[in-house]
């Protein structure tokens, strides 16, 4: 799978007095899941639409593998996109929708069977889309994006409205696509939807870049060195960790929050003292907190800048 990066440079889009995307620059690498995060109205969909040649920028540009989307002869073979899972006619059968897409894009029919299998919809291929749950429609949208076996996938809010099982599925699926060397860009307005899926995060607010960072780096930066430990032997764990020099707070019947020891040393201290544990994680809530802080700061900035409310 050739590596296709996405490069966004000084991208700007105005709707009348509103600057929906404001001098945005970032790049998206192949072989990773990149989360594109921002509150509602931050400009995510507008940015994705400009990448896909559906909206024309007022300034700057977005290139995929060094080229503008519109210049691709067979774009579906390079870029697969899911913008709106609701956009399929409800009277259509899933397989017919994909066959129509395949014909339109010059893709062999055999790919339709392959992608239906890939997204787990083979058994309902002949059912009408109107009877599909939102999760099934999201899967169908992803199947459509995969038809051309593209090296680049751009998915707008694919996790939105999924049940926990659907969320688990999509996480694993996106990660497997990235592991094949594909470029996977996935948007969400919720950090929680992406923090366990994405390797990298691009955070925007009011059309501007707020952060462009690895998930691990951001987590390290914001977790304040806190590690959560889940253990059935709470008291023994407190002793072992305190002996190793950590500060330990009991945060639940079987959970502890540890500061002053990195996760590797927490594991070493527990294992060395023979204390059982069922989970060790950097402080996950911290990422959500950081996201809230980033976007809140930006709201304050926007307000003091004199240009009104947060949409
Ligand atoms: N065609 C349009 N005409 C006028 N304003 C628009 C248009 N499209 C988007 N906007 C405005 O541009 C801003 C950015 O919208 P956009 O849909 O890109 O945000 P988003 O981050 O994708 O939000 P959401 O998570 O709600 O989808 C919003 O204030 C929106 O109302």
UniProtKB/TrEMBL annotation:
Gene3D superfamilies: P-loop containing nucleotide triphosphate hydrolases. PROSITE patterns: ABC_TRANSPORTER_1, ABC_TRANSPORTER_2. InterPro entries: AAA+_ATPase, ABC_transporter-like_ATP-bd, ABC_transporter-like_CS, P-loop_NTPase. Residues 6-231 form the ABC transporter domain. One of its GO terms (molecular function) is ATP hydrolysis activity. It comes from the Bacteria. CDD domains: ABC_BcrA_bacitracin_resist (cd03268). It holds the Pfam family ABC_tran. Keywords: ATP-binding, Nucleotide-binding, Transport. Belongs to the ABC transporter superfamily. PANTHER family: ABC TRANSPORTER, ATP-BINDING PROTEIN. This is ABC transporter ATP-binding protein. It comes from Dactylosporangium sucinum.
């Amino acid at each position: 799978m050739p590596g296709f990066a996405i490069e966004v440079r000084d991208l700007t889009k105005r709707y009348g007095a509103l600057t929906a995307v404001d001098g945005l620059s970032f790049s998206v690498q192949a072989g990773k899941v990149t989360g594109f995060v921002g509150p509602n109205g931050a400009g995510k969909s507008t940015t994705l639409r400009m990448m896909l040649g559906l909206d024309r920028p007022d300034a700057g540009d977005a290139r995929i593998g060094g080229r503008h989307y519109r210049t691709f002869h067979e774009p579906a073979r390079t870029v697969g996109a899911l913008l709106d899972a609701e956009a399929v006619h409800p009277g259509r059968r899933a397989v017919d929708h994909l066959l129509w897409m395949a014909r339109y894009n010059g893709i062999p029919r055999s790919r339709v069977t392959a992608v239906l299998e890939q997204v787990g919809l083979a058994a309902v291929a002949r059912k009408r889309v109107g009877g599909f749950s939102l999760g099934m429609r999201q899967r169908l949208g992803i199947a459509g994006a995969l038809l051309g076996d593209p090296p680049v996938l751009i998915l707008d809010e694919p996790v939105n409205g999924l049940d926990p099982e659907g969320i688990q599925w999509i996480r694993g699926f996106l990660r497997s696509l990235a592991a094949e060397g594909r470029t996977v860009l996935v948007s969400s307005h919720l950090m929680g939807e992406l923090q366990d899926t994405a390797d990298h995060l691009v955070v925007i607010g009011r059309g501007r870049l707020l952060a462009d960072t690895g998930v691990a780096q951001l987590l390290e930066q914001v977790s304040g060195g806190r590690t959560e430990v889940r253990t059935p032997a709470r008291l023994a764990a407190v002793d072992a960790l305190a002996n190793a020099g950590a500060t330990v707070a009991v945060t639940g019947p079987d959970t502890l929050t540890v500061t002053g020891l990195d996760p590797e040393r927490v594991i070493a201290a527990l294992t060395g003292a023979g204390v059982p544990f069922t989970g060790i994680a950097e402080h996950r809530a911290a990422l959500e907190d950081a996201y809230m802080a980033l976007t809140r700061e930006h709201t304050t900035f926007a307000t003091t800048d004199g240009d009104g409310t947060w949409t």
